[in-house]
Amino acid sequence: MRNMAYVNGRFLPLADAKTSVEDRAYQFADGVYEVVKFYGRNAVRLEPHLVRLMESSAHLRIAGGPGLDEWKTIIEQLATENELVDDETNEYILYQQVSRGVAPRNHLFPKDAIEPSVVAYFRKAPVYSREQRETGIALSLQPDERWNRCYIKSVCLLPAVMAKQAAADAGCFEALLVRNGIVTEGSATNTYCVREGIVYTHPTGPHILTGVTRTLVFEAAEKAGVEIREEAVTPDQFAAADEAFISSTTMGIMPATRLDGKPVGKSGKPGPVTRQLAQALDAIVASELRGHEVTAK
Ligand SMILES: Cc1ncc(COP(=O)(O)O)c(C=O)c1O
C-alpha cells in the first residue's frame, strides 16, 4: 500500500499530513476519532462507525464535519490513493479524526465558526498471532479514571493510555477497568465474562464505549443461541468466572485467560462459549464481506 492520508480536502503522503500547533485536538484533546477494519477494500460495519463518529462530534458540539455520504466518498478515494490490495488476506485499519479545528488557544469554543480539522489514513492492521488467540491474553485490574462520557469516542485518551501502560508494566495485554467496585471495560476494548453459559457485560451508558464489535458480539450470541446479559460484575465475580474475553474492531473477539497472574476459569484456557461466539462473529463478518454489504469501493 501507499501511505496516503486525507487532510481537510486534500490527499497527500502521510509524512506531509500535518495540522497546526493551535489545532484544538493538540491543545485540548478537543476531537473525536474512529478506527475501522478493512479486509481488502471492504470495511466491516462502516456505517455504524461513521454514525458513531458523527454522534460523538454532535455530543461535543463539533459541527461542519463530513456527513455519511461525504465520508464514504473520502474513504473510497483514500482507498484508491493507497492502492489497497483488494483481497481479504490484506487487512487494513482506517483511522479517522475530527477536531473542533484551529483557533487561538482559549478553553472556550471559538466565538466565530471555524472549520473542523478532518483527517483519515490507512495503516496495515495489527496482527494477532494464532498462539495469542489459542492461549488467550492476560488482563490486569486497573482503576477506571476516565470521565462520565465514555460513550463519546474522544481523543482524550490519557486515562486509557495510563491504564494500558500500567497493565503492560504488569506483564499484561489489557487493563480491566474498575469503577466504584465494578468492572466497566478495557482501556480500548469491551470486556465480557461467562458464568454457567451466560455472558455478562457492562450495560451501555456513561461508563463504557458502545463498541461496534460489542454489537456484533450480541448478534453472534443470538445466532449461536447464547444468552448475553447487560449486567455489571465485580472484579471478584469476573475472576471467578468460567471464561472471559474482550472485543474490539482490531481484534474481534479475543479470549482472556489470566487476570492479575491467576487463571480465569478452571483451565485458564479459552472456553467453549468464547470459541462459539468467535466463530459466529467471524461467520457474520465473512458473510457481510462476501455479500459486500458494506463496501468502500
Ligand atoms: C474504551 C473502548 N471500549 C471499547 C472499544 C471497542 O470498540 P469497537 O468495537 O467499536 O472497536 C474501544 C475501541 O477503541 C475503546 O476505546
Write up what this structure looks like.
With 297 residues, the chain is α+β, with helices and mostly antiparallel strands. The chain has two domains: 4-124, D-amino Acid Aminotransferase, Chain A, domain 1 (2-Layer Sandwich); 130-287, Alpha-Beta Barrel (D-amino Acid Aminotransferase, Chain A, domain 2). 30% of the residues lie in helices and 28% in strands. The strands form two sheets. Strands 7, 8, 9, 10, 11, 12, 13, 14 and 15 form a nine-stranded mixed sheet that branches. Helix 6 (212-224) packs across helix 8 (272-290). The chain starts with a strand and ends in a 7-residue tail after the last helix. The relative contact order is 0.15.
CATH superfamily of the largest domain: D-amino Acid Aminotransferase, subunit A, domain 2
What does the overall shape look like?
Answer: globular
Helix run count:
8
pLDDT < 50 runs, ≥5 residues: 293-297
Query: What is the number of E strands?
Result: 15
Main sheet properties: 9 strands, mixed
* Helix content class: 25-40%
Average pLDDT level: 96
Structural class: alpha+beta
Bound molecules: pyridoxal-5'-phosphate
C-alpha-based Rg, rounded: 20 Å
Q: Return the CATH topology of the largest domain.
A: D-amino Acid Aminotransferase, Chain A, domain 2
The figure for the number of domains is 2
Output the helix-strand order.
EEHEEHHEEHEHEEEEHEHEEEH
CATH architecture assignment of the largest domain? Alpha-Beta Barrel
**Text of the CATH class of the largest domain:** Alpha Beta
Instruction: Give the oligomer, counting copies of the same chain as homo and different chains as hetero.
Output: single chain
Strand proportion, as a percent range, falls in 25-35%
Query: In whole angstroms, how far apart are the ends?
Result: 16 Å
